[in-house]
Amino acid sequence: MSFRNFKMVSYVVFGRGSFNQLDEILTPHRKGDAPMVFLVDHYFEGKPLLNRIPLRGKDKVVLANVTYEPKTSQVDELARSLKEEFGTISGVIGIGGGSTMDLAKAVSLMMTNPGSSADYQGWDLVQEAGVYKVGIPTLSGTGAEVSRTTVLTGPTRKLGMNSDFTPFDQIVLDPELTKDAPANQRFYTGMDCYIHCIESLEGTYLNEFSKSYGEKALQLCQKVFVEKNHWDNESDDQLMMASYAGGMSIAYSQVGVAHAVSYGLSYLLGTKHGIGNCIVMNHLEEYYPAGVKEFKLMVEKNQIEIPQGICKGLTDEQFETMMNVSLGMKPLWENALGKDWESIMTREKLRALYDRL
Ligand code: NAD
Ligand code: ZN
Question: Which of 98, 107, 250, 300 has the fewest CB atoms within 10 Å, i.e. is most exposed?
Fold first, then answer.
């Protein structure tokens, strides 16, 4: 038996207003006049946050278009244009939701690794450390701030660049940055965390490490989405720590059925991660009875609409594509259903599940 020896984020700062410390944090990592590049979620265009970015010398702000989830072509183009403009850069700072953070991680890696980011979709294919990278979440839930992956849609698949070089060198957890997120978006991304917890805690890969973080993250999600009747600063603090702990939980276990099925939706229909997971979770009573019951309670309590009928009218061929993508996520299924998962989740059964979505 071989135990996972995993690389974690090197430095973490937490606290309301900790974003103001960014200049001080970056200074020791500046290499001569090579700039820092701030990749900022396009939501912040024209917002006050842009004026708080500690620009020096040739530093540059690049707005990240996250209308769609990150693509390998988008990463390659960003890295190419930065190399063309600057040759080398001191670092990249991703400020935004999971999409922007993933883009920042991938661009950092593609500043030093040859070829296309599509060449590195998989496990431990990245050969060189990227440039210094910092993650600053403005939405809480994905756990992208702590994970060793960056999820990219490539020419042939949707798969992360999973490697020991992928985690951020530094993260800045400032819950103030999440306060203006719309309730729906906050819910969908927050549910990504809730679902990470359920899938981790109900999975066969569970161990005390994952359980410790998973239980804490679950408790924080429950405080925010079940127990409280209003959203306040404390909720932002709690959900940010839930995301962190949920990410740490799956780092040593794995996600499960909701993610495996949701990946198929995302590949074929472009359904976004958070909402896709919610669409699937809504129909998983058989696999996670208690979690789904509580999920439905949270949906109702927070007055969120979960889309229904998104697979209506798809062709058999399209269903096949989704099923192939989904069944390709072997570790997720094994975690969820055990070593015999293939005899449990047959193609017929999965098709019937997609039909219900
Ligand atoms: P997102 O980053 O896709 O952003 C969703 C929307 O919210 C965007 O329109 C964005 O502009 C907007 N937004 C961001 N911050 C905001 C704020 N403070 N106020 C208002 N609007 C804001 O959403 P997400 O759910 O955080 O991330 C999903 C992405 O993360 C997917 O691409 C998914 O593949 C990825 N992901 C990665 C990992 C990982 O471990 N690397 C894990 C889970 C998900
Ligand atoms: Zn997720």
Answer: 300
Nearest Cα neighbor of 268 from 228, 218, 318, 198 is 318
Domain of 232, in residue numbers: 183-356
Q: Is the CB of 277 under 6 A from ligand 1?
A: no
Residue of the CA atom closest to atom 34 of ligand 1: 151
- Mutational test site, ligand 1, from 40, 49, 100, 185, max ligand atoms within 8 Å of CB: 185
| Residue type at position 23 | D
Considering the domain architecture, whether residues 200 and 157 belong to the same structural domain is answered as no
As given in the structure block, the two tokens for residue 104 are 């920042």
Statement to judge: residues 196 and 172 lie in one domain: no
**Ligand closest to the CA atom of residue 135:** 1
80-132: per-residue pLDDT in tens?
A: 999 999 999 999 999 999 999 999 999 999 999 999 999 999 999 999 999 99
pLDDT in tens, 3-27: 889 899 999 999 999 999 999 999 9
